[in-house]
Specification:
335 residues, alpha/beta, Quinone Oxidoreductase, Chain A, domain 1, Rossmann fold, seven-stranded mixed beta sheet, six-stranded parallel beta sheet, 27% strand
Length: 335
């Protein structure tokens, strides 16, 4: 089967029309006709080879929404024509301790949708059936793509950390990840505080789900919030004043990091004295993704997206690189 896609031939290269042939469909795989595909900052990092393992030609795209057009003979949980999504992970071993205990996203043998294989900036994409997640009725398809990466990235900490609907949670950064975190946490029942370096985002943050807003330009703001939060969810990729944020946590509170920052430096006393902790997590398991989609459908949670035609993919990448989207970009693969 010939796949039509957009690929870069070198780091930071323009995405150009590209065709490749998929091999034989394995028994546990499905082929998905792409309807929409989100544009994530991880696509940009991979395009630029920031993480030093991109293989070229490189076809980005790991927030896929589409319809199944073929399936292997061992696939019994999915049907031809079914609407599904594929996120950061396209395959895992299904037999290791992590997979067998439900933590497929932690599998040492997991394969990323755009790592060593071609992604969803294409007319079709292939993935293991276990990682091809049915989209329930009630999910808005055109904006659903970002849920499969950014959405599960901020939803998973709620589950992993057993966050109660009665909890007070702070979200650092009102961007591609943070804006979805506000919506999920508000619907979960939490009291939600948004932290941002952009005071002009306050009104929008409140509409997205924040009950309170803190401008981090105010150097004394964090001092006034000591012992207030059950969890701080950090969604930004820059270093924070780690100790100041730790002090805002209640006893046994958690500073959970999903923004890709290089390192964390904190005083042990700010952890030990109140039994606080620092944690992190990558995306989520297939079950967690399915549960997130059900939750999003029930509460009509939609990422805020800007739509581009797939044929205008380079303009979309340029806008993302300049940090301009509010807050995610989705490509219409049929245009």
């Amino acid at each position: 089967m010939i796949i039509k896609a957009y690929a870069a031939l070198e780091p930071k290269g323009q995405l150009k029309s590209f065709e490749f042939e998929l091999g034989e469909l394995k028994p546990d795989e499905v082929d998905v006709e792409v309807l929409y595909c989100g544009v994530c900052h991880s696509d940009l990092s991979m395009l630029n080879n920031d993480w030093r393992f991109t293989q070229y030609p490189f076809v980005p795209g790991h927030e896929v929404v589409g319809k199944i057009i073929a399936k292997g003979d061992q696939v019994h949980n999915l049907e031809i024509g079914q609407t599904v999504g594929v996120g950061w992970t396209a395959q895992s071993c299904l037999t290791c301790g992590d997979c067998m205990s439900g933590d497929h996203n932690l599998c040492n043998h997991a394969k990323g949708t755009i790592v060593g294989r071609h992604g969803g900036f294409a007319d079709k994409v292939r993935a293991q059936a276990a990682w091809t997640i049915p989209i329930p009725e009630g999910v808005h398809l055109a904006s659903a793509g970002p849920l499969f990466c950014g959405g599960i990235t901020v939803f998973n900490p709620i589950i992993q950390n057993d966050i109660s609907p009665l909890a007070s949670v702070g979200v650092v950064g009102i961007g591609g990840l943070g804006h979805m975190a506000l919506a999920f946490l508000k619907a979960w029942g939490c009291e939600v505080t948004a932290f941002s370096t952009s005071p002009e985002k306050e009104e929008e943050a409140r509409k997205l789900g924040a009950h309170h807003f803190v401008s981090t330009h105010d150097k004394d703001a964090l001092k006034k919030l000591r012992n207030q939060f059950d969890m701080i969810l950090d969604t930004v990729n820059v270093p924070l004043m780690w100790d100041d944020y730790l002090k805002t946590l209640k006893s046994k509170g958690i500073l959970h990091i999903v923004g890709v920052t290089e390192s964390v430096t904190a005083r042990i006393g700010n952890l030990m004295g109140k039994q606080r902790s620092i944690s992190s997590s990558p995306t989520g398991s297939p079950v967690a993704i399915a549960e997130m989609l059900k939750f999003a459908a029930r509460h009509d949670i939609r990422p805020m997206v800007e739509m581009y035609n797939l044929s205008d993919v380079n303009a979309a990448i340029d806008r993302l690189e300049k940090g301009k989207p509010r807050y995610r970009i989705v490509l219409d693969a049929k245009k």
